[in-house]
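User: My advisor asked me to double-check a structure prediction for Integrin alpha FG-GAP repeat containing 1 before group meeting. I don't want to rely on an old file, so could you generate it fresh from this sequence?
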Amino acid sequence: MWMFKLNIWAFLWLFVGQYGAFALQDVTADLFGAENYGTVAAFGDFYADKQTDIFIIRGQSELVIFLADSKIPYFKPKVNITKDIFPRDAVITSVVPGDYDGDSQMDVLLTTTIQNSKMTNVFIFWGNNQTLDLSGKLMLNKNFTDQPLVMDFNGDMIPDIFGVTDSVPPLFTEVCYLTKRVQRWEKALSSSVDMRSPHSNAFIDLNRDFTADLFLTTEGPKFETWISKDGNFTKEEVTLAEPPVKIIGQSSFVDFDGDGYQDHLLPVCLDATCQRGAIYMVKSGSAEWVPVLLDFQRRETIWSFVPGKPSQPLALHFGDYNLDGFPDALVVLRNTSGSGQQAFLLENVPCNNASCHGVGRMFQILWDQSDLGAIQNAVMATFFDIYEDGILDMLVLSQAEDKHDLIIHALKNNYEADAYFVKVMVLSGLCFNDCPEDVKPFGVNQPGPYVMYTTTDSNGNLKNASAGQLSQSAHFSLQLPYTVLGLGRSANFLDHLFVGIPRQPGETEIRKKEWTAIIPNSQLIVIPFPHNQPRSWSAKLYLTPSNSVLLTAIALIGVCVFILVIIGILHWQEKKADDREKRQEAHRFHFDAM
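Assistant: Sure, here is a fresh prediction for Integrin alpha FG-GAP repeat containing 1 from the sequence you gave:
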């Protein structure tokens, strides 16, 4: 009978464990309290405490920075940029935190537009001891035709501002440097670029030389690749053909198939009304578009993408939610036969049809995520490591009928399969122990670094994964200031971890360093100081204990308690036997005396 009960409990434990592995938990109240409204615009460690903060736009004219805290609510509004600072009728369109003047303190770049104007204004608010100098803001003396791309154009590890400033052809690109808070404009590329608006330009390593290249989306729609050769951008002669579709979304770059190269993924609509959607992918060095998601049917219902608009284009947001080493995605879909919009998780799984055979991987929509489905009228969804434990959680924005601002929902990822990860954040390396005003060198949101690992999994097979840090900045790309690379269930040491940063013009040596035997479930903060001496780069390692450590501790404590109980019982029995023997001796003595 007891064996039967034990089997029932084992079955229930297995069932609950399997269910909990994919469960989501709504933790909105714990994170924001009653402040869960606005548009999540960016992430960054503003307070330089190794905790990621959230930048939220409210009323399209106000920015609120929510700083991470150790007490509920875990994110509290602390820094505020009010609408009184901006020109009248200005609408905030994007937020890009970064260290633009090179003082190792986080500044905030805001882009705004004014009604009836197609040009984009750029404001910089300078960081000052974990706050902002609101009175000393800088407005760039040139406007852009669209939101600029924040990148490190000259390889000095100080973010620069890249885009098109001309409104009439020929349209040449310019880059603005803000070192020491002085504007310096230069012509960027050698030929004119008819930039698409909204664009999805990227600053990402496309040929695995650990130096970030430049990817541009142009009218056509077409794509241009400018490879960094010795720190100078050179246009590739082979251009990527446009896919056979009607509507094109925002380009994204991830290592989709785990080969160490960045792949180009593109959400599209196959017809003009976006009744049929698809996601195409082109591998690095290839010109063939391969569909990795075509099936949008759930029972009798057909779902598809929400047609993009200039303020919120059609885009995917990537993150490895199950830590298997293959990036998954979050996307908002609409019911083509109704009016409902929901956020869905796209899981990266092995290919099971002929259309994606050349890639070996595909997306599969997880329809039965009840917590995601409970959020009606979803507008945007992205990944975010809420508790800084290496497991990517989710933030979903929805539109309420009676409210102007979006509603923010936070969902904790209770993935309990005990998969492993490595979390890497590359800093600017402008200083290490001698930062000006004794500031901490954290929280600078550095675009351009490239991270890749190679290791051996539990089956003895070679495993790769790679990612670029902050490769895109415009149109709510919502990229995190760090990279989380899943290792699967292999608890082995990470064999090789490579980190590379952009090079300065004319520099022939690749700026790259390798670390070996990295402990799984660790966070690595890389300080590339000095930039041109990779051997001198340092890294700080922070460990995040996995569930197996907790279970091992519980098992060890349980064994110790069990042994103590046995010792106690044996001791009690021995004492009882001694007492009985003493009574017998006493009885024998009295009998002899008689």
